[in-house]
């Protein structure tokens, strides 16, 4: 008996409250009559189109069948494929260099890259190919020697060297590079600034930052347009007919001019282009999945097993990695964060001296002659109203922010400069990076690398900056994960962790470099209130480790509990420094009293 009959006997269905415990409901899906009409129209159209194509003898399918796999067509096809592969590879390589040059701080590099892109995008491809084909007229020989002298090591005939095939490869690559450069630049710009900062704070070299951190993340934005370009290029190869180079399209043209079977031979070229584009689209799908690692909440499995599973009716294959198990209790018993031996090794290490540091952003003075001395192993909380310059001061300690005047030293070693008499010379990037490795930094937004697993995030800097062997770094990372209570998350991606867990991993990543000094920039501001506790617990434990710690925080209760020194800042100046008991109970400065009255 259906419920409709049942309800109908008692009252109208509208009056009857829905009762979930009733059995026997019949579910009727919503109807979409226009969807049905659309499908029928589409099927009819496809049927008539196919029928017309297959039954009209003028399409000449017998001629098509004769030439589809003929030798000249296959040779032309191979040439088209070779041109596409070579020009794509060279074009994307040059495009990547141009894109990095374009975003570089050097105005010269950026300008040259801009000019190249502007010029090559403006010149029609056909004109570029014809100019390159006439290079022999402009420069009959290519000379290798010392310019402005008569010293000549070798001389080549331009026409002999620059065959139509190489003219095509060079022309297509130069053209492709200009378009790919802008696509790659778009990808680079789509990577969050925090990722660059985290990579710099870990001391990764520029090359490593570009290849391991920025490009893999940029690929997600680059791939769809990049493949579009590649598909466009595969079709643009037909333009090299102006060089009389027999690629696929030129070959079929030559044949149909002889036998006058225009349509069947155009179909030969069309079907081959369709096949090339389909293969490229499948490759694109596979590569896009590869670079989606860590970027999606529910990763889809590998492409091929999924397709096979779908075809055999078994549904989708499981994802690359099974979702991480339920979070372990943060209160579970775990190893101490820092061992007694490590505490001993840190004794007397990590003295910070900040001298007369000033910093302006345009007309705004953000730091105004700041002086501060922090003892080895001390824990300092910097508090103050928003915009006081707290984060900027913290970032000058590891030279993420350059000072306008003044300097910072750690254990008497200047950060970011070397001194010669009364002059401070800024160090080269590589030297700054080496010194930065001694200063760990934890950011408000965690800034974990989303495309790397937890363990890969932690070992990245020890392996690439400190040259630790990978196996050793993995052991150390696993040990750190056990100490922060996340041993089971080694292979999870950051996106699959809660905010609190991500921040704990970020702390482990900073600790992996065994830093002398740890900087925390509002480490709990981006967390839900219930997750704050688990991060603060880890920081509290670190506070007893003998590592010098500087924490910018709005958590006044936490600052009081964990810090041995409180620094109150406002308007780019330090107004008050003292122990928590003194600053919180008897602040000497009027502004500190007003601030604490508001936040306590
Ligand atoms: N890169 C920058 N360019 C221009 N102005 C900046 C830059 N970074 C910071 N500022 C400005 O410098 C001032 C101090 O910023 P900072 O982030 O150091 O303050 P804060 O005390 O940490 O504030 P909050 O507690 O809100 O984070 C602010 O007015 C900010 O707008």
From TrEMBL:
It is found in: Cell inner membrane; Cell membrane. The keyword rRNA-binding does not apply. It holds the Pfam family BPD_transp_1. The chain crosses the membrane at residues 36-54, 74-100, 112-131, 262-283. It comes from the Bacteria. InterPro entries: AA_ABC_transptr_permease_3TM, AAA+_ATPase, ABC_transporter-like_ATP-bd, ABC_transporter-like_CS, MetI-like, MetI-like_sf, MetN_ABC_transporter-like, P-loop_NTPase. It is a multi-pass membrane protein. Its main location: membrane. Residues 352-596 form the ABC transporter domain. Keywords: ATP-binding, Cell membrane, Membrane, Nucleotide-binding, Transmembrane, Transmembrane helix, Transport. Residues 77-284 form the ABC transmembrane type-1 domain. NCBIfam families: HEQRo_perm_3TM (TIGR01726). Belongs to the binding-protein-dependent transport system permease family. HisMQ subfamily. Belongs to the ABC transporter superfamily. This is Amino acid ABC transporter permease/ATP-binding protein.
């Amino acid at each position: 008996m259906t419920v409709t009959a049942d309800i109908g006997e008692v009252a109208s269905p509208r009056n009857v409250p829905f009762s979930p415990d009733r059995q026997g409901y019949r579910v009727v899906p919503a109807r979409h009559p226009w969807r049905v009409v659309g499908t029928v129209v589409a099927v009819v159209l496809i049927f008539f189109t196919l029928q017309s194509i297959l039954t009209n003898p003028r399409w000449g399918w017998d001629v098509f069948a004769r030439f589809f796999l003929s030798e000249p067509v296959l040779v032309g096809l191979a040439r088209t494929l070779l041109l596409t592969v070579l020009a794509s590879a060279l074009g994307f390589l040059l495009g990547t260099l141009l894109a990095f040059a374009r975003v570089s701080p050097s105005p010269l590099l950026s300008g040259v890259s801009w000019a190249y892109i502007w010029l090559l995008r403006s010149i029609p491809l056909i004109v570029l190919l014809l100019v390159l084909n006439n290079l022999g007229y402009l420069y009959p020989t290519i000379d290798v020697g010392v310019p402005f002298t008569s010293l000549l090591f070798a001389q080549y005939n331009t026409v002999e060297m620059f065959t139509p095939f190489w003219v095509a490869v060079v022309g297509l690559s130069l053209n492709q590079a200009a378009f790919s450069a802008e696509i790659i630049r778009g990808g680079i710009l789509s990577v969050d600034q925090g990722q660059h900062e985290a990579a710099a704070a870990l001391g990764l070299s520029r090359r490593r930052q570009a290849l391991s951190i920025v490009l893999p993340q940029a690929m997600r934005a680059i791939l769809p347009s990049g493949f579009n370009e590649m598909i466009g290029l595969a079709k643009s190869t037909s333009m090299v007919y102006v060089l009389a180079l027999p690629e696929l399209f030129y070959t079929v043209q030559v044949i149909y001019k002889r036998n006058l079977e225009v349509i069947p031979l155009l179909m030969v070229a069309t079907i081959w282009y369709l096949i090339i584009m389909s293969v490229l689209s499948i490759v694109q799908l596979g590569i896009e999945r590869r670079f989606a690692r860590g970027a999606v909440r529910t990763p889809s499995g590998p492409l091929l097993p999924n397709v096979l599973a779908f075809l055999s009716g078994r549904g989708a294959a499981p994802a690359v990695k099974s979702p991480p198990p339920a979070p372990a209790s943060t209160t579970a018993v775990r190893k101490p964060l820092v061992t007694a031996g490590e505490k001993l090794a840190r004794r007397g290490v990590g003295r910070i001296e900040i001298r007369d540091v000033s910093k302006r952003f345009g007309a705004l003075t953000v730091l105004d002659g700041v002086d501060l001395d922090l003892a080895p192993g001390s824990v300092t909380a910097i508090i103050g109203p928003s915009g006081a310059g707290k984060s900027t001061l913290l970032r000058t300690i590891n030279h993420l922010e350059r000072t306008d005047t003044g300097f910072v030293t750690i254990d008497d070693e200047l950060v970011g400069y070397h001194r010669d008499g009364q002059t401070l010379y800024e160090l080269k990037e590589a030297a700054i990076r080496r010194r930065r490795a001694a200063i760990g930094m934890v950011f408000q937004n965690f800034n974990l690398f989303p495309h790397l697993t937890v363990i890969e995030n932690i070992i990245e800097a020890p392996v690439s900056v400190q040259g630790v062997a990978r196996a050793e770094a993995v052991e150390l990372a696993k040990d750190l994960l056990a100490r922060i209570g996340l041993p089971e998350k080694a292979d999870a991606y950051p996106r699959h962790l809660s905010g609190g867990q991500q921040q704990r991993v970020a702390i482990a990543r900073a600790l992996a470099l065994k830093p002398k000094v740890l900087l925390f920039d509002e480490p709990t501001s981006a967390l839900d209130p219930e997750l704050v506790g688990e991060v603060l617990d880890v920081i509290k434990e670190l506070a007893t480790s003998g590592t010098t710690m500087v924490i910018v925080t709005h958590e006044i209760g936490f600052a009081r509990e964990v810090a041995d020194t409180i620094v109150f800042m406002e308007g780019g100046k330090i107004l008050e420094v003292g122990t928590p008991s003194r600053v919180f109970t008897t602040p000497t400065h009027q502004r500190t009293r007003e601030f604490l009255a508001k936040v306590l």
